[in-house]
Design a protein that fits this description.
2 copies of one chain form a homodimer. Chain A is mostly helical. In chain A, helix 9 runs antiparallel to helix 10. At the A-B interface, helix 7, helix 8, helix 10 and helix 11 of A face helix 7, helix 8, helix 10 and helix 11 of B. Chain A binds a DNA duplex through loops.
DNA sequence: ACCTGAACACCGTTCAAGT
DNA sequence: ACCTGAACACCGTTCAAGT
């Protein structure tokens, strides 16, 4: 029995911040972040929207809290053993798994104006990995900027759904043939992606693969710079 | 005399799509994307919000059109001469300059569900640069994913304003000392950034530098892969 | 052909009033 | 101490009615 039905029957349990956040996360998971309103979170808890203001400051505070619920799910880092790139890579994938469970979370990260406590804790642990691997303060700073949102397990993909399998193939075919004249290079890539998608084994647009490809490209570049710095 | 005052006096000139887009861009430049509403764009043109629907389909269509106004300002690419990385780098900076003139544009890019015509044209030209430099179709595809939004001249920065000079130094000092215990690595970086900002010459958090650092790190990594691929 | 008034179904947030 | 009714100042969008 979830919170909603429980509270609809009789509102014995008083509200608190944690209950509000949990209900909001549940609602966003089920209906998407665009459907999340104060009124709807209230309804989910069997309460009017105004009651929520007794437990959260405003909607921004609600979003901050929801993000921290998600980030608290990230697995702790591996021990510092062997190549720092491995430790870093694995932790980024742990963050990615947590964010993937709540697809709205990455859009929330991006709109935060101040880092939340859990974001700070996560970033601190990631900075620690490279510092203990011998990165200078300068190179560490550049590294974090270069990685950007990849540190948190996601990257800004342009045209995320162009390879969406739900798009019907006939429309895709038409689009590609129309693009071919004006945008030959883009059409060539779109054709490749479509072909690879059709063959079962191929991975025309495997998000996970592309994410790790980009991540390791940057980590390898950084390791090269660390070595150059060290032997300076 | 701008469109607003002109049309307030007497509405002789009939509306068209271009005028709506221009007015919307002007409004977003001046007051930010959050202040952009159908009602306010209408007001800017001396017209009710409902009139806009004669020229644009809906708000998403308006945002698409606004983005294409901005992207049309990107300088054309250099000739294919010398290192492809230079040509690519310079064009990305051209895109960056255009987006920087309209700070809301990058947030619009990120929320598009379908690529706009100008986005397609831009991406096509960038794909062309690497293809003509000898990249395989596969590597080209991975390259575009690895670069992500960097291709368009921006990157997802976490905590953009943590080095904001408008934040008062005393509050910054306090925050850092509070962080130091719980988040020593993050505090160390924050301290460095603050020091470099104070010295006039230093560039503790030079967005432009960090952007190009990350861009070149990826371009160099890709060039290495291209060479390995070629001599395979 | 283009513009508008009225309306619909929503938002976040405040605050005095209730229990 | 916590919750609510009423209200404020907004949204995007539709559609019949006006010119």
């Amino acid at each position: 029995m979830n919170i909603e039905t429980e509270n609809r029957e009789r509102q014995r349990t008083p509200l608190d911040r944690e209950k509000v956040l949990k209900a909001a996360v549940q609602l966003a998971d089920r209906e998407g972040i665009d459907s999340l309103s104060m009124r709807r979170v209230g309804h989910q808890l069997g309460v009017e929207a105004m009651s929520l203001y007794n437990h959260i400051a405003n909607k921004e505070d609600l979003l901050d809290g929801m993000l921290d619920v998600v980030l608290a799910e990230i697995d702790p880092p591996l021990a510092d053993e062997g190549d720092w790139r491995h430790v870093f890579h694995e932790r980024v994938l742990a963050a990615r798994r947590a964010l993937k469970r709540h697809p709205w979370a990455s859009t929330i990260v991006v709109t935060r104006v101040n880092p939340t406590p859990q974001m700070l804790a996560y970033m601190d642990s990631m900075i620690g990995i490279v510092r203990r691997a011998g990165f200078s303060l300068d190179l560490t700073h550049h590294a974090m900027h270069a990685l950007g949102s990849r540190t948190m397990g996601f990257a800004q993909e342009l045209f995320e759904d162009s390879a969406d399998p739900s798009a019907d193939p006939a429309a895709m075919e038409l689009m590609i043939s129309q693009m071919a004249e004006q945008f030959p290079y883009a059409a060539e890539i779109a054709t490749k992606v479509r072909h690879d998608d059709e063959s079962v084994v191929g991975s025309g647009c495997d998000d996970q693969f592309e994410f790790e490809f980009g991540l390791d490209l940057i980590l390898d570049g950084l390791e090269r710079l660390r070595r150059a710095d060290e032997s300076r």
